[in-house]
Amino acid sequence: MNNLVEKQTEILNSLLQIMDSSVNGEYQSLQCTFDYYRAEDDNSVSIGEKFFYKKDDELKSEFLIYKNKAVPELVKELHTVMENHTGGNWKEFTLTLDENGKAHTKFIYE
């Protein structure tokens, strides 16, 4: 079980690194909501993302910058690991790095 928790942490850290490198310069906080949708008819998966960061007390929207399909692959992997670990089937989650440099997650389940 510990390996699954470590894998989840590793994936979340990779997503945080992508979020951090997507901002040019300093920021106060980061927040990204990732959507996960699996079609029932053919099991195809769709991943979405909404990324914001706070700079000078102003919330700004930006695209995540990543190579190939890094973010969709990480989100799919996280969903699979968590589903195998807990049986939970979340449809979205928000990953936040607050002003104190502390990471937070909030998962929304079906």
Please summarize what this structure is:
The chain has 110 residues and is of the alpha+beta class. Helix content is 34%, strand content 37%. It comes from Acinetobacter populi.
Outline the structure in words.
The protein is an alpha+beta fold. The chain has one domain: 2-Layer Sandwich (Murine Class I Major Histocompatibility Complex, H2-DB, Chain A, domain 1). Helix content is 34%, strand content 37%. The chain is built from two helices and five strands, in the order H-E-E-E-H-E-E. The chain has a five-stranded antiparallel beta sheet with strand order 3-2-1-4-5, covered by helices on one side. A hairpin with a 2-residue loop joins strand 2 and strand 3 (58-62). The radius of gyration is 14 Å and the shape is globular.
Largest sheet: 5 strands, antiparallel
Radius of gyration: 14 Å
- Mean pLDDT, to the nearest integer, reads 94
What is the strand tally?
5
- By secondary-structure content and strand pairing, the structural class works out as alpha+beta
Q: Helical content, roughly?
A: 25-40%
User: How much of the polypeptide forms β-strand, as a percent range?
Assistant: 35-45%
- Please give the order of strands in the largest beta sheet: 3-2-1-4-5
Domain tally = 1
Terminal-residue CA separation: 24 Å
CATH level-3 fold name: Murine Class I Major Histocompatibility Complex, H2-DB, Chain A, domain 1
CATH hierarchy, class: Alpha Beta
Protein name: DUF600 domain-containing protein
Pfam families: YezG-like (PF04634)
Organism: Acinetobacter populi
